[in-house]
Design brief:
Layout (H helix, E strand, L loop, with lengths): L2 H6 L1 E5 L3 H11 L4 E6 L11 H4 L2 E4 L5 H6 L7 E4 L4 H14 L4 E5 L3 H11 L2 E4 L3 H11 L4 E7 L2 E9 L20 E7 L23 E7 L3 H4 L25 H12 L7 H8 L4 H27 L5 H12 L3 H5 L10 H33 L15 E4 L3 H12 L4 E5 L13 E3 L2 H4 L10 E4 L4 H14 L4 E6 L2 H10 L3 E5 H11 L5 E8 L2 E9 L11 H8 L2 E6 L5 E3 L12 E6 L1 H9 L7 E8 L2 H15 L3 H8 L4 E2 L6 H13 L2 E7 L7
Helix pairs in contact: 2-19, 7-15, 9-10, 11-12, 11-14, 22-23, 22-24
C-alpha cells in the first residue's frame, strides 16, 4: 500500500452503532483505510462482514489519548464521531484536535448553536443532526408528485423535479434535451423508457429528442412557496444557511423588568426617568396599565396626606398618610362615623372621602383583574385548540419523535395539509397549528380520514411497527402514496422489492452518505433522493493551489460529474445556476449537486478525460471570424490568440480537447454566428 493510502486515506470511525456501521460501509467503497473505536464489542453486525472492512477495531473510550494513539490518530485524514452520546462526541472532538490539529472532524450532534461555535474554534469541522438528514427526504417523498427535493440557500429556493413525459406533454416530440436548459433550469437527467438509470450526472445525450414514455429530471429556481409543490415552473440563491425569521422582542418577567429598570436608571438624569419607564414597558400594555394605576394611587396618597395635614395641623404626617390610605381602601364608617349624631366632619371632607373611595375601588379592581389574568396565563392557561383533521388531500404522519417533528415542520413550511399521529401527548407549544390524534397508532387510522388522504408517512422508531402500520394504511387506501422509514439496509431492500408501491427510505443509510461525503466536501448542506440514489448538496470554498482553482465550471461539471447550482466570487457577487464559462479563482464559493463518488473524485483530483474536439469548417465573413474566436475563447477556455489563429487558417481542428456537452454547446453557439463546425472524437492515445 503506497504512502497516499497510509496517510491521506486513513479514516477513523468512533462508534459502531447502526450509523457507524453504515459509515464504514460507505467509506470502504472508496478504497480508504478504516479503523474504528467502540466502547464495547458490538453484539451484532448490521453490515455483513463489517469486521473484514476494518484495518483495526479498538475497544475503548475514544476520548482517551492512549486509545486514539493506538489507531495512529496523527496519520488520519478524517475522524467520524458518531456514537449515540453527543456529549462523548464533542469531548472526543477536543481530544482528537489536541493530537492532530489538521484532521477533518465530522461529528454527530444536534446542538446547532454549539456546532457553529465549535466550527469557529476547532476548524475543519462539520456536524450533523441525524434526525434532520432523512427528515427532508421523507417529507419530499410524502408530497406524492414530481418534486424530488427542495434546496434552501438562505432566503432563496430551488426545487428538483422528476417529470414523466406523456404524449400530451408540451415538450413531447417538440424539444431536444439541451433546449430545456435555461437561465432558471438545468437538466439533471434524461431517461428513456426502459433504459437503465444512470449513476452520475450528465449521462444524457444533448441532441436527443424528448419522446412519450421518457422522463426528465431537472433543477429550477422557484419564486414562491406555492410553486415549490406544483409540478410546473420556476426562484434564486445566496449564502448557505437557513434564513432567520424576524421574531418580536421577547417578553420580560416582572423581575427582569425591574432589574433592567434599575440598570438603566442608575446613571440617568432624574428628569428622564418617567420617559424611560414608559419606554421600557412599551411592548407590554399590561405593564403600562400597572404603571398608570400605581402613579395615580401614589399621587392621590400624597395629595390626601397634604390636605389632611393642612386641615388638621395638630395631627402627625404619619396619621394623615394612614387616614388617606384607609379612604382609598373604602373605609368610610371607620374613619368618620357619618351616622353618629356627634359627627361634625365638614361636607368638603365627606366629598373628598367619597372621591378617594371611588378612585381606590377602581384602582384595586384594575389591579385584581391584572393579577387574575397573570395567574390564569401562568398557571391555568389551557392549550390552544388544534385545527381539525383535514377532510381530503392531506398527509398522514404517523410517529412524532424527533424525525417526525422535523418532517411535520418541513411539510408545514411547504403549506401541505397534514395530520400528525402520536401515541403520547405533545406539549401544546409543539406544532400548535398541526391537527393531532393521540392514540395507539393502529387505532388512529380510523380517525385521520385515511380514505381521502394523499399520502401516509410511517416514521416511528420501530421499523417492524412501521411495516405493519404501512400495510394497514395501504389496505385502507391503496391510492395513497406510502412512505416507510426503516433503519437496516437489508430490511429496507427486502421491503422495497416486495412492496413496489411503497417508498422505503433507510434513515441511517441516508445519514451515512452525508457523513461519508463530509470528509471530501467542505460542507454538506442537504441531501435528496433522485434516480434511486442519494444526491448531496455540497459547498466548496476555493483555496489557493487546490484542484479547483483555475478550472472552468464546464471542467468541474463534466469532469467531476457534478451540477453547479450556485457561484459567488470574491466580490460577493452571487449567481444562481451559473454558466459553464466561469473560471474559478481562490476565494470563490461554489455549491454543487453531487454523489458521494463525485465528491471523492474532486478530493483526489480525478477528472474524466476530455474526449472530443471541434472541427471548424468555414465562416461567413472576417467579422464573423472575430466573433467566432471570442466564442471559442469563452466556451473552450483557450487564449484569444489561439482561437484567432485557428479562425485564420480554416478548416482546422481546435487543439483544445473538450467534454461532449461543452463541445456541442460550442458548435451550437458557432452556428448562430454562421460558422460551421462539428465534433470529432479523440482517439484513446490522444487522450492520454
Amino acid at each position: 500500500m503506497d504512502a497516499f493510502l497510509n496517510e491521506a486515506s486513513h479514516v477513523l470511525v468512533c462508534g459502531l452503532g447502526s450509523l457507524g456501521q453504515q459509515c464504514v460501509a460507505a467509506l470502504k467503497g472508496f478504497g480508504l483505510w478504516i479503523s474504528a473505536i467502540d466502547l464495547v464489542q458490538p453484539r451484532s453486525w448490521e453490515v455483513q462482514n463489517l469486521p473484514e472492512l476494518l484495518e483495526a477495531l479498538i475497544i475503548g473510550d475514544c476520548r482517551q489519548p492512549s486509545v486514539l494513539q493506538q489507531v495512529k490518530i496523527q496519520r488520519c485524514r478524517a475522524v467520524l464521531l458518531v456514537t449515540n452520546n453527543e456529549r462523548i462526541n464533542i469531548e472526543a472532538a477536543f481530544a482528537v484536535r489536541l493530537l492532530n490539529p489538521q484532521v477533518r472532524l465530522v461529528v454527530r450532534s444536534s446542538e446547532q448553536q454549539l456546532n457553529q461555535l465549535l466550527d469557529q474554534q476547532l476548524g475543519n469541522f462539520s456536524a450533523f443532526e441525524v434526525a434532520g438528514l432523512p427528515a427532508h427526504a421523507l417529507a419530499i417523498a410524502a408530497l406524492s408528485n414530481e418534486i424530488r427535493g427542495i434546496i434552501s440557500l438562505g432566503d432563496q429556493l430551488l426545487r428538483v423535479v422528476h417529470c414523466p413525459i406523456n404524449a400530451s406533454h408540451r415538450w413531447c416530440d417538440l424539444r431536444l434535451v439541451h433546449e430545456l436548459n435555461t437561465r432558471t433550469r438545468r437538466v439533471l437527467g434524461h431517461y428513456s423508457d426502459g433504459a437503465a438509470l444512470p449513476t452520475q450526472f450528465h449521462q444524457w445525450e444533448p441532441e436527443a429528442r424528448i419522446r412519450a414514455g421518457d422522463s426528465v429530471a431537472y433543477i429550477e429556481v422557484t419564486q414562491s412557496l406555492a410553486d415549490l409543490v406544483q409540478p410546473t415552473r420556476p426562484f434564486a440563491a445566496g449564502k448557505s444557511g437557513a434564513g432567520k425569521s424576524g421574531a418580536g422582542k421577547p417578553k420580560q418577567t416582572v423581575g427582569q423588568l425591574w432589574r433592567s429598570l434599575l440598570k438603566q436608571l442608575s446613571g440617568s438624569d432624574s428628569r428622564l426617568v418617567p420617559a424611560q419607564l414608559w419606554q421600557l414597558a412599551a411592548h407590554q400594555q399590561t405593564k403600562r396599565v400597572v404603571m398608570l394605576v400605581g402613579i395615580t394611587v401614589l399621587m392621590l396618597t400624597l395629595l390626601g396626606t397634604a390636605i389632611l395635614k393642612a386641615a388638621y395641623p395638630e395631627q402627625s404626617w404619619l396619621k394623615g398618610l394612614y387616614v388617606t390610605g384607609v379612604m382609598l381602601l373604602g373605609s368610610y364608617d371607620v374613619v368618620f362615623g357619618a351616622l353618629s349624631p356627634s359627627d361634625s366632619t365638614p361636607l368638603w371632607m365627606r366629598f373628598l372621602n367619597l372621591s378617594y373611595m371611588l378612585a381606590g375601588t377602581a384602582s384595586i379592581a384594575v389591579l385584581y383583574a391584572l393579577l387574575t389574568q397573570s395567574l390564569l396565563a401562568a398557571k391555568f392557561a389551557l392549550p390552544n385548540k388544534r385545527p381539525p383533521v383535514p377532510p381530503q388531500d392531506h398527509v398522514v404522519l404517523i410517529g412524532l419523535d424527533r424525525v417526525g417533528r422535523q418532517i411535520a415542520t418541513y411539510l408545514q413550511k411547504l403549506r401541505q395539509p397534514l395530520v400528525g399521529v402520536s401515541d403520547t401527548a405533545l406539549e401544546s407549544s409543539l406544532l400548535p397549528q398541526m391537527p393531532l390524534i393521540v392514540s395507539d397508532f393502529r387505532d388512529a387510522l380510523l380517525e385521520v380520514n385515511l380514505a381521502t388522504a394523499k399520502s401516509v408517512v410511517v416514521a416511528t422508531d420501530n421499523e417492524m411497527a412501521n411495516l405493519e402500520i404501512g400495510l394497514m394504511a395501504h389496505a385502507a387506501n391503496p391510492d395513497a402514496a406510502l412512505v416507510i422509514q426503516t433503519f437496516e439496509p437489508d430490511f429496507s431492500s427486502n421491503i422495497d422489492r416486495l412492496l413496489p408501491y411503497a417508498k422505503v427510505l433507510c434513515s441511517y443509510s441516508l445519514a451515512a452518505d452525508a457523513f461519508a461525503a463530509a470528509i471530501f466536501g467542505d460542507h454538506i448542506l442537504d441531501l435528496l433522493r433522485l434516480s434511486n440514489q442519494t444526491v448531496l448538496v455540497a459547498t466548496y470554498d476555493v483555496q489557493p493551489e487546490d484542484g479547483l482553482q483555475g478550472l472552468l465550471l464546464a471542467e468541474v461539471a463534466y469532469g467531476y460529474q457534478v451540477v453547479p447550482i450556485f457561484y459567488q466570487d470574491q466580490d460577493q457577487t452571487a449567481t444562481l445556476l451559473p454558466p459553464d464559462e466561469i473560471t474559478l479563482k481562490a476565494g470563490d464559493r461554489l455549491i454543487v449537486l453531487a454523489t458521494v463518488d463525485s465528491l471523492h473524485q474532486i478530493d483526489r483530483g480525478e477528472k474524466l478525460p476530455q474526449s472530443w474536439q471541434v472541427y471548424i469548417n468555414t465562416t461567413a465573413t472576417k467579422n464573423t471570424g472575430f466573433e467566432s474566436a471570442r466564442t471559442i475563447t469563452r466556451i473552450a477556455g483557450c487564449s484569444l490568440s489561439t482561437a484567432t489563429e485557428i479562425m485564420n487558417h480554416l478548416p482546422a481542428v481546435l487543439p483544445v480537447p473538450l467534454y461532449q456537452h461543452q463541445a456541442l454547446r460550442l458548435v451550437r453557439e458557432l452556428s448562430k454566428i454562421q460558422t460551421q463546425a462539428n465534433l470529432i472524437p479523440l482517439s484513446p492515445a490522444s487522450n492520454q
